[in-house]
Amino acid sequence: MYIDDITNAQRAEVLTAALPFIKMYNGKIVVVKYGGNAMINEDLKQQVMEDLVLLHLVGVKVVLVHGGGPEITEMLSKVGKETKFVDGLRVTDGETAEIVQMVLAGKINKSLVNLLGTKGGKAMGISGIDAHIIEAEVKDERLGFVGNITKVNVEPIKNLMDNDYIPVISTVACDDKGNVYNVNADTAAAYIAGALNAERLISMTDIAGILKDKDDPTSLIPCIDVNEAKQLFSDGTISGGMIPKVECCLEAISKGVKKVVIMDGRVPHSLLIETLTDEGAGTMVIKEKGNEY
Predict the structure, then answer these.
(1) How far is the C-alpha of 208 from the C-alpha of 219, rounded, in Å?
(2) How many Å apart are CA 214 and CA 220, to the nearest integer?
(3) What is the C-alpha separation between 126 and 150, in angstroms, rounded?
(4) What pLDDT is stored for residue 39 in this prediction?
(5) Other CB atoms within 10 A of residue 52 CB
(6) Measured over all CA atoms, what is the biggest interatomic distance in the chain, rounded to whole angstroms?
């Protein structure tokens, strides 16, 4: 069914069905982590920006935290620099750190701000370096300038929200010596959401969520609590690239985020399905069962 096929009465029903969820989130902070392969499809990117603007206009305090691994890799390739990974993290020497800063805080950040503006949004792009929003230290000497977050200063983010802006944050960090660090976007989003005491952290990725069987997309687990997540780690259900994503979910919960969702950002309007319907999308991680809504 296309939008032109929907009658005015059906459109009204859709809007009224969303009303309880609009009330639920009005004035609440929702942090959206957006990055990686979920950003590649331009049509889907347009829809994600539309969803963010819609949520903002109905009173949700939206914060967008983004990465951009594929574009960093592409730029490194263009300058003839080999990309190396250790334990899933990009080895970042001084030159790579400069390129990460250029791509994340420059090209990607400003293109997202510009795109939000074309959709009627009022956005402001900042990086973790600005006002020392994200401070970090060396995570592992083998990784070079990959940052372990030591402090998050959310006052600049709050100031932007208080002035009706959507903060768009690139995940580069700094220390008091002027070093620049490449920080994992999932980790940064978890720390920022926790420091903001966010109602929800939504991680948009290129997977459906946590699966009972990683080879069966229909085996999605819709909701787990912290204890169940630990069990899924133990029995190997959560494995590979899903391990750090779920670890970031647990980190966010431990820092006070009410609910965390891992969902497939490649699904059209999945952000609205998650927030403004009773269907939800992906896997929700909560502190304990009985507190799903």
Answers:
(1) 10
(2) 9
(3) 19
(4) 76
(5) 27
(6) 61
pLDDT for 6: 67
**Distance between CA 146 and CA 139 in Å, rounded?**
6
* Nearest Cα to Cα of residue 149 among 137, 132, 131, 133: 137
Whole-number CA gyration radius for the chain: 19
Q: How many residues does the chain have?
A: 293
Pairing state of beta strands 123-127 and 200-205? unpaired
Q: CA 266, CA 162: separation in Å to the nearest integer?
A: 31
Q: Which residues pair with 65 in a beta bridge?
A: 33, 169
CA 34 to chain CA centroid, nearest Å: 4
Of 140, 104, 242, 233, nearest to 186 by C-alpha is 242
Determine the CATH number of domain 26-286: 3.40.1160.10
Do 27 and 64 contact (CB within 8 A), yes or no? no
Instruction: Tell me the average confidence (pLDDT) per consecutive run of 10 residues in the chain, 293 residues long.
Output: 62 76 87 81 88 94 92 91 84 92 94 96 96 95 93 96 97 95 93 95 88 84 91 86 86 92 86 81 84 52
Both ends of the chain: CA-CA distance in Å? Answer: 30
Give CA 180 to chain center in angstroms: 21
Q: Where are the domains of the chain?
A: 26-286
Residue 63 CB-half CA count within 13 A:
33
Pairing of strands 166-170, 172-174: unpaired
